[in-house]
Structure formats: C-alpha cells, structure tokens
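Module 6 notes. Inverse folding takes a fixed backbone as the condition and produces residue identities as the prediction. Think of it as a translation problem where the source language is geometry and the target language is the twenty amino acids. Below is one complete input and output pair. Work through it position by position during the lab.
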C-alpha cells in the first residue's frame, strides 16, 4: 500500500446499523493504522448509561472535538454525529449488512455481555433500521454515503467486511 492509499485511512468514519460490525472493524483498522478509535455510543450516552442521553449540542461538540485530531476511526449509527464532521473524514465505510447478520451479531454480543436489560427494545429498534425516518437509518446512511466524495467502501456482509480488513493488512505487509 503506497503513501497515497495510506493517507486515505487517516480519518475513517464507519456508519451502519446496530451490530453491523462497526466496532469490530474500527478496532482492527485502529490497530492496523495506529489510530484512536472513537465509539459514538460513548459520546451519545452519558457515562455509558443507555438511559441517559447526552444533549444534542454537547454530543455534536464532543464528536467535533474528537474529529479535530489528525488520525482516528470514528464509528456509530448516529448520522447526525457523522454529518457535522464529514469534512474531516478521509475515508467513509458503510457496514450495510443484512438484518439476519446484524441480528445474529446483536444476540451474540448481548449474550457475551450478559445483558438482561433492553435486548428486545434494542432488537426492535435495530430491526426498524431500513424503515425508520431518522438520521440513524438506512436512508440517512445512504444519503451520507452517496454525498461523500472521497474514498468510500460499502461492505454488504460480514464476509466482505472480514475480506476488506484482510486485504488492507496484506497490502500493508507486502509494502513493508
């Protein structure tokens, strides 16, 4: 991978539905390119408490502050937090995987965490991704993706997502 291609991966935004592989991919890209990883859930929810939302202006200010850094991966479902920082993004990735895969990932994640709380509510919200009319929906992510003029990738299933990171890592090894 040459320096021009590497530069595209300096500030990566990853959007997609809940449990679509955003966190998994952001962790691997962060490790691969030595980037800080920012999970927008940590900005949206006060202290990781999913019953306490950060105010919209404060959340946007926090996301914008993180985006001022030179190197990062920022991931989340919140199109309204990605849109204000999109001008800083050098590469956009959309984990646009089918609901069957997201649901399986969601169940595995929540089981691994021992979650007993709002699984049904989260499952219903994530399942409505394609029909919702909000900034955290399929339609909003499609609009962000189509408008973005830089390097962008639309990953349509978990196998494609795994192959994507494998290809990048292999290109980097070959270049070294």
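Target side of the pair, the amino acids:
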């Amino acid at each position: 991978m040459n320096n021009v291609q590497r530069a595209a991966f300096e500030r990566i935004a990853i959007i997609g539905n809940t449990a679509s592989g955003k966190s998994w991919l952001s962790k691997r890209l962060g490790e691969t390119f030595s980037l800080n990883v920012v999970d927008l859930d940590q900005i949206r929810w006060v202290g990781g408490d999913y019953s306490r939302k950060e105010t919209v202006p404060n959340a946007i200010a926090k996301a914008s502050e993180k985006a001022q850094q030179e190197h990062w991966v920022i991931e989340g479902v919140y199109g309204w937090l990605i849109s204000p920082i999109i001008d800083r993004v050098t590469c956009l990735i959309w984990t646009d995987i089918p609901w069957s895969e997201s649901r399986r990932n969601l169940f595995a994640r929540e089981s691994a965490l021992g979650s007993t709380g709002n699984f049904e509510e989260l499952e219903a919200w994530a399942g409505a991704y394609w029909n919702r009319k909000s900034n955290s929906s399929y339609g909003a992510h499609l609009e962000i993706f189509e408008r973005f003029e830089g390097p962008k990738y639309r990953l349509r299933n978990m196998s494609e997502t795994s192959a994507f990171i494998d290809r990048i890592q292999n290109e980097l090894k070959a270049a070294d």
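Reference fact for the lab report: Residues 28 and 157 are 17 Å apart (CA to CA).
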